[in-house]
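We examine the record.

___
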Amino acid sequence: MLLENRKQPRTPERFLLHILAARGSRFAELATVENVSSSGTRLATRQVWKPGSQVILKSSAIGDAYVRARVVYCHVSTRKGFAIGLNFLTTDKEGKRLGKHAVCHR
């Protein structure tokens, strides 16, 4: 499925992962993945995440590995939550994006 103005298909998903601020903070929470592509993901969160900030995503699905990402947007989604868009930054040894393969390999 291609969403408006999207270069890559998004796959609807529903699973939990931890999102942590990458620098200078213990800011962390358990978030719900809403969709994912090879270059990014959309999460449902309870806290505001600043666009431009870097985060770390961890999931039991990827064992001890983690994925670094940059917050692209943070919008109010519900009365108690936000939707955030992330671009994956982590690359493997060959320089390919880990993104979808790392987060979704469950």
In short: The chain has one helix and six strands. The longest helix spans residues 99-104.
